[in-house]
Input
Amino acid sequence: MHDHAECLAHALSERPHCADLHSHPGGGISRRRLLTGAGAAGAGALVTAALPVPAAHAEDAGVWRPDPADLRFTLVVMPDTQYLFDDDRVHPAPLDASLRWVLAHAREENIVFLAHLGDLTQNNGVPAEFAQISRSFEALDRRRFPYSVLAGNHDVDPGTDDQRGDTPYLRAFGPARFAHSATFGGASPDGYNSYHVFRAAGRRWLLLALDWRPSTAGLAWAQSVLDAHPRLPVILTTHEIAFADDAGEAHLSEFGRHLWDQLIARNDQVFLTWAGTSGRPDAPSWPTPRAMTSTCTSRTTRTVTTAVRR
Output
């Protein structure tokens, strides 16, 4: 049994090879070996935070046709959009402009996927707020552009886990919405956790989108997905993993440490994590998130946790 705390410190250090410290149960593939063999070495997966841009005309967007063989590809990461969908203060224009930009530049930037990190809306499940943001994401649905979403603490009752049952979030962004998505692999029985498999750099990649608070059953489902895809590099997304203190230093939250101990540290497939919700108190409001760029190389691969504004 290896020391997960030591593994975590190592993963966040400048010597980030978890597999150098110990062997994982079952002889699982290490993060370093997995990324080296993936063909991502030297390719540098370009990670772009979605920002407001001048609106592109819908007719300029074109059809989404990425190049799955190109070693250069782009993943778009979108953090908390909650203040754009806040009761009677609904301002979808910045989100709409961002999504139009993604569609308009999908071919030029070889954009293969978009991941939303939760807190789509502000007030814990107001149907009208979800109706508005659902309409915005229809721009991606119409072009079958692949994306994932997950519930944040402002989308659902924050005192519940993924066994909470039906909610406006689930009705708007549950598994039924992704039935025609080419990348959608499935969802947990409760509908709040999902996974996608997309192609880039000549191979397949798996993205997990986990609920604000996955239950024991939710984490068991996530592990079953990893077990069923043992050789795919995995990006794990959820709403909360880390927070930034006043000095800008990142620390795992209580839930982040739980997620590390129960899932991430046990699976070297998970080479990258993205989360929203937390940032420095003086961080600018959405849609100007903190930097979210990561490059994978053959000699240095590690789990990266990105903290974004509150």
Observations:
- The longest strand covers residues 194-200.
- DSSP finds eight helices and 13 strands in the chain.
- Residues 241 and 257 are 7 Å apart (CA to CA).
- Helices lie at 4-11, 18-21, 31-38, 93-104, 127-142, 168-173, 216-228, 254-264.
